[in-house]
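Bug: token stream looks shifted between consecutive jobs. Job 1:
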Amino acid sequence: MSSEKPVAADQPSVADLQAEIAAAREELVATLAELKAETTPGALVRRGGRAVTGFFTDEFGGVRPERVVVAGVLVVGFVAWRVARRRRRG
């Protein structure tokens, strides 16, 4: 008598399991390559640039003046604060 169990018709064979593992491994390698490409410094800069551009534009690509004005006021306020601070020190 053999100690091996008969394979049921609905169970995958060893070859099927090996093929499934190989396919999963290839998919994992491809996913890791995509993640590596998305996290390069250049890709992060591009993503940040798109985020900034998206903040100042609407869905049609037009400029949102209210957001540009708010950003401008913040920049001018910051510069004025720095100048005033330097004058007090000097």
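Job 2, same session, no restart:
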Amino acid sequence: MMETRVAIIGIIVSEPEQASRLNAVLHEYGEYIIGRMGIPYRQKGIQIISVAIDAPQTVISALSGKIGRLKGISAKTAYSDVITKPET
């Protein structure tokens, strides 16, 4: 087991047709996701999504990077100081 960290990934979806691609990426990392919340902001035509994750730093970075490379989607990650060390 590797050291894990708790983080939040904030996602803005400005092209709704990309939602299925985003969901596929999130499903790929499902074992690390604690929970997610989505809010449609209809007046602006966007979706606001937050994803709580507990994973190794490399996994969090990979997920955030994959999301950020999707057309019409931006992502930013905020890391907590909550780190779980591997048991020896």
